Every structure is written in C-alpha cells, then in structure tokens.
Amino acid sequence: MTNNHILDVPTSYSIGDVCVSPATILAPMAGVTDTVFRRLIRKQGGCGLLMTEFTSSHGVVSTRTAKKPNRNFRYLYFEDDEHPISCQLFGSDPDVMAEAAKVCEERGFDTVDINFGCPVNKVVKCNGGSGLLRDLPLVGTILRKVRSAISIPLTCKFRAGWNDQELVAVDMAKIAQDCGVVAVALHPRTREQGYAGRADWSRIAEVKAAVNIPVIGNGDILTPEDAVRMYRETQCDAIMIGRTASSNPWIFRQLEEYLRTGSYAVPPDRERYNMMRTYYLMLEEHGEADAVGKMKQFATYFTHGVRNGSKLRTEIYRAQNVKRILEIVDVFFNDQLQGLSAPECAEVA
Fold first, then answer.
1. Active-site residue, from 47, 87, 118, 156
2. pLDDT(2) > 70
3. Which of 56, 289, 298, 341 is deepest in the core (most CB within 10 A)?
4. C-alpha dist (Å) from residue 105 to 29, 144, 146, 305
5. Residue 118 among the catalytic residues
C-alpha cells in the first residue's frame, strides 16, 4: 500500500496479486453498474477497481448450458478497458457459488467478490446477501468452497450485522481472513437499517484493527472530503463509492484531484450536459436492449442540481425513443444553459 504524502491517505492497495490504483472502488449496484456505466466512470479517471452488478450464482452457472444469451450473460459482459474488474456473486449454496466463481474466472475477471450485504427482501429470503449474516458457519463453508475453486483473488463485502443487537462485522472479517479471502469491504449499516440512518464508520475501524488483510470502507461518502475523513477515522486501505457516483460520476476524479492539490473542480452544467449525452450515446452504441428505460433512469441521477432539471426529466419520461430523448437533452441545455460560468473550486476546509 502506498500513501499520499499531502493528506496521508492510501493511493493504492493490493488484492492478492492485483494492484488497485487509485485505492478506490466503484460499488456494485443492481440496475446501475452495467458495462456502459462502468466504462463511463472509467473514462472520468480516478477509479481503481470496477465491479459488476451483483449477480445470482445460479444464474451465472446457467450460462454454461444456456442455448442463447440471457440477462446473466449481460451481467458478465465487460470490455478490455474495464480491467481491473471484479464480478460480485450472491447465493447460499456453497457448491453453486464455487461453480459460479469458476465461470467468472473463465470469463477473465480479475477477482471474485461474494455479497453478504444486500438487504433486499427477495435476496434475503433465499438466505442470500445479508441473510447469511445470521449463519456464520455457512459463510465459512461458502468462502472455503469458492476459495478452493478459483486461482484469482477472492474478496467479500458485508454489512455490520442483521441489526444493532446482532453485530458480526469483526467475526465476518476474521472468518474471511481464515478462509483465504484477501480483502474485505464493510458497509457499516445493519440489514435492518437498509439505507436509512447513519453509516457508523467506527465499525470499519474495528474491522481494520481485527484483521491483517486490506479493509475497504463504504457508506455515506458524498464528497472528496468525506472520503479523506473516512480514511483518517478508520485507517481503511481503500474506499468504495456507490450511490454518489450515480449522480456525480466525477466523484473519483474529484477525489484524485483533491488528494493531489488540496482542491477540486465542480463541473459546470455544460460538462453535465456533455456527460449525459456521452452516456446516452454509449447506450445506443452498445445496443442496450432497454436504452430508453436506462436513459429515463439516469435522467434522474444526472440532472440532480441542474436548474429546471425537473422540466427536463418530465420531458424525457414522456419520450418513447432514443432519438427523441437526445433531441430533448440538446434543446434543453442549448436553451436553458447559455453563458455558463467556469467551474468553481472547492478548497480544503
């Protein structure tokens, strides 16, 4: 691990033999982190590791015998410029999880990650995601089976526990380390919290103090300043950013700039327009089956904070095809955002 000498935070870390530099990760997000969004993030700079949407282990195994591509093929698709990239799996059957991990290795992923954190009911009721936080022996069995099935590095991501009375983060980290996992990521909310309330970063610090493998912190990083504060308060080895990257795809670049110079540019609306148009054209070029749906979904994210953004979103939601959506975006920004000022800078507090 190397450190930034200005702010004394990590600039790189290793997942087994995979060097991640910068020490930042795009969190796996269902319905968000497909290949198009991942490559959009990569183009901005500053993100060290990309991760797929979390993917059903049973679905991944089914791709071996499927006669035609299905959505699981889409989840496993990535381009060469996405390396290093990790495939995240969920499930509760150790043998199926191991087989799915083999498929990920065969497809060229750099690492495999196991999800023990998803709080969604349909995942938990099948004993997947954070449902496994109540069955630590099974967690150990899954990790050992997967570790023995692949030669690429294995990591895992988990929550602090089922609720505040059943906190297992330190135990999970120790089990992972004992099973040959080479790095762990902690989102320090509980399953009961969902995404509400505050992420208690002190739990990340507790995990960091308990194990010798790299610990990745996740949760409530909204600005570069938040990321630096997490590093300092927890001594974590890397940070993972999820929801913030959806509305601010520049967050990784801003953090890299902040660590290098002590300040960072806040992109003006003209750059937001360029970002939005670039993403939409990438969807079209990729041949995304639901390009229109994705455009409507990301209109909500990308117009966050844009003057009269609600008007733009309403028009996009009503559109029925890609061409019309692109026309709406062009007209809106050309009409509404003439004479934009240069980017402002946020100085170190």
1. 118
2. no
3. 298
4. 21, 16, 11, 41
5. yes
